[in-house]
Specification:
Rossmann fold; two-stranded antiparallel ribbon; alpha/beta; 10 helices; 2 domains
C-alpha cells in the first residue's frame, strides 16, 4: 500500500465515514484477513468503492492494485486521523437508565474512550456506584474535569436540565459534547456538539413503515413549462372548449 502526505483538511462528510471504515477494518482483522480491497471495505461500510478510495486518499493512503489495503496499516492511519491514539477521557452527566447503560458499555474502551467520571444532581444518586465509578455531584465538574484532563462530555439528562448541564460542562473546560437529551442545545464557537435522538430515528422509521402500507397511487408530474411559453388560463380553456369548431367547406363545381 502506497502512502503520501495526508491532506490537512478533511471534508466533514469524509470524517463522518471514517469510523465506518474503522469498524469494518476491525471486522476484517477479526476474520483473519491481512488485506482488504476497496470493494470489500465498501461493502462492509455500506458505501461504494469509488467513495472509499476518494476518502482514503485524504489520509494519503492508496491501495495496491490487485492486493488492496493493508488492514493493520490502514487501521493505524484512520485511528491517528481521528485522534483515537491519544485515549480520550469522558465525563458523563445523568445516571438514569440510559446513563448507566452508557457507563457500563465496554465498546468505548476498545475505541479509545474511557468514561472517567459520572455526575448527577439528584442527592439520592450522589455517592452510589455505576460500575466501578462513584457518582459525583454535578457541582464538582470543574475540579474533576481539570484533574482528569477531560475534553469530552456526554449528556444523558432529561431535556429540561440539558442546557444547564451543557453550560456547566463548557464552563468546566469541556469542548466536545455528545447530547442524548431530546432537545436542541446552544453552544459557543469552539465547542463541538453532536446529537443522538433515538425517538427521532424511530419516527423516521415509522414514516417508512406507514408508507409501506399505503396503496400505490403513483405520482403524476406536471410537464415542465418552457421559459417564455404561456399557458392559457382555466377561463380561456373553458371558453375555447364551448365554441364550435369552424370548418372550411369546398363548394362543389359542376363540370
Amino acid at each position: 500500500m502506497s502512502t503520501l502526505e495526508p491532506v490537512t483538511s478533511i471534508p466533514q462528510a469524509t470524517v463522518a465515514r471514517l469510523p465506518l471504515y474503522l469498524r469494518a477494518l476491525h471486522q476484517v482483522a477479526e476474520a483473519g484477513n491481512p488485506t482488504v480491497s476497496s470493494a470489500g471495505l465498501a461493502a462492509a461500510a455500506g458505501v461504494n468503492p469509488a467513495k472509499v478510495r476518494k476518502d482514503l486518499s485524504y489520509l494519503g493512503s492508496y491501495g495496491m492494485r490487485g492486493i488492496g489495503y493493508d488492514v493493520a496499516t490502514l487501521t493505524q492511519q484512520i485511528s491517528a486521523s481521528l485522534g483515537l491514539e491519544r485515549g480520550w477521557g469522558v465525563a458523563l452527566v445523568g445516571v438514569g437508565r440510559l446513563g448507566q447503560a452508557l457507563t457500563n458499555y465496554a465498546g468505548f474502551a476498545n475505541r479509545g474512550f474511557a468514561i472517567k467520571a459520572v455526575f448527577d444532581s439528584a442527592t439520592d444518586q450522589v455517592g452510589t456506584k455505576v460500575g466501578p465509578l462513584t457518582v459525583q455531584h454535578v457541582n464538582e465538574l470543574p475540579q474533576v474535569v481539570a484533574a482528569q484532563k477531560i475534553a469530552i462530555g456526554i449528556i444523558a439528562t432529561p431535556a429540561e436540565a440539558a442546557q444547564d448541564v451543557c453550560d456547566q460542562l463548557i464552563a468546566a473546560g469541556v469542548t466536545s459534547i455528545l447530547n442524548f437529551a431530546p432537545c436542541v442545545l446552544f453552544v459557543p464557537k469552539g465547542v463541538d456538539l453532536r446529537k443522538v435522538d433515538l425517538a427521532i430515528e424511530l419516527q423516521i422509521l415509522s414514516y417508512h413503515e406507514h408508507h409501506k402500507t399505503l396503496p400505490d397511487r403513483g405520482t403524476r408530474l406536471a410537464p415542465r413549462r418552457r421559459r417564455g411559453s404561456s399557458v392559457p388560463s382555466r377561463r380561456t380553456r373553458a371558453i375555447s372548449g364551448a365554441l364550435p369548431t369552424r370548418t372550411t367547406r369546398t363548394k362543389a363545381v359542376d363540370e
